[in-house]
Fold:
Amino acid sequence: MRRARHNVFFLLFFFHGVVISNRNSCSAQPYLDQFWYNAISVTRADGFKDYAPQDWHQIPCPNVEDCLAYTDKWEMGRNWSLEETDICQHCPAEAEAEVCGLHHQSPIDLKREYGFEPGTHPNANECIDLHWMKYEDSTCTLDQLENAEAFTIERHALRISQPIEVYDNITQDTDGLPDGVRLMCRVSGIGSRFGRIDYSKGFSDWWYLSHMDIHVPSEHTQEGRRYDAEIQLAHFYSVSAWNEMGTVSVFMQAYDDAPVYSYLETAICQWRRYESQVRAECGLDPISQPYPGCTTVRRDRERRRHRQRNLRRDQMTDEEKQRERKRKRFQNAAQVILHNERHKHDRDHTDIKILLDKADAEPAEDKDWDAWIEHQSKQMNEEYRLYHSLKQRDFGGNHTDDLHQKFRQLQEWNNVTWFNYWPMLGARTEYYFRYEGTQTIPPCHGKRIPSSRRNTNHWRVMKDPIRIHPRQLEELKRLLADRIAPRGSLVNECGNDTAAKVKRDPTDPQTILAVDTARPLMYTSKHHFKTFCECKDWQSKWAEDREWCSIQNINDRFYEQPYNFETNGF
Structure:
């Protein structure tokens, strides 16, 4: 039985987020060095640098509270110096020698050979997990996420946060900071509940969903195959002792015969909405590239709302702006955890509590999961048949914007019931790789501590990709490549500002040929503790998994028909 706690002090891990100002700092200005994914580090016109992946460990940071690149200061919160070269170790997979020694940096190439029976392959490693990762939804509806501005375009990824808010029953305020936060999404008669997932073996408590990031292309690879995108669902643990984190990853791959994936389509429209809002607040022209089915938000009413909000911001006093920054300081639970860890030794610091509501403490949902997953599978199969029927009957076998729009309308996606663990449905599998590693953005939290899982990021990477349509992939790339820094940004305010490595058509700069927000692969060591959990470990509730498991020859199952859908190898 899983359990949860109320008013828990979580001291866990970091995630990319907002700049946290140090009220005790004497620094005259912030350090505006940043990280990006281009091959070389470059000094900008303002004198600061954008650091390439192999140089992330070199980012100078004399005062960690004022460093833009290392807003994720988990390692520094433990009094580790940025002068150490093992914080964000660069251990490239193609290195001729093991330049880092033993490490567990991420991402890595994942191998099916881990899943062989011990003794039958030199790299086999037994999966100790005994059951699937059960996932239960949060109370956040799509409308609530939209109103909370939970869909954002970060420099390194497309993000969906589980939004949090300051709760107002503060009895004492000694440091000028909010003393408690809770999930913003509340339901009458229920309260609020973070999304939660149940890791098997070694974790007796729930992991709670903080946010998800989408990288293009994938950061991990499988048998050398890099996928078109990777969704990373970031979780914090309900036991705070070891500063652990948990990330569940799901690949995405574009296929010409794949229908438009409904949940991703909804997210794309929300990111376009965010993009439109940023452009409006910056006084820029609307998005020039249309996307079928997403209604524009740049109406007169929206324009007036943006003008009024900008006017209010311009008229604020410095004190009012400071209060506003404090109110918006925390985007998700992970950032609260980071703040508590960073300031735990400050003289006047009081931990900011993450309030777990009654619903978080309730036992696992009592429902027929087999029937529920069977329904999800049938629904996706119906969508596939409908899409191909329309495509052949009305559009001559071609995908067009008109087909895209008609398919959306017939599926009534504008009225979709949002599910915060939607990537777990799209993959249609329960089986995964598991290993111990780090985060993949600076400062790459997860420094290896021998004989301990302290500070570890526990990765679970699903074996099958979500099949998406190429038009959706094109839009994910454009959103990252065309990112505009919002008003108030310390670098490139209201200008193009992305960490992505972008390649454009020299004859038509609006045409994006490639986008890359993936940290290079790291070589693997025994301290990654890699394994592959599959059919022999438990029976899946997905019919697609069970059919795949019926392939008796393990080499055929692992390499010739590696997915739950028809392919010729990887």
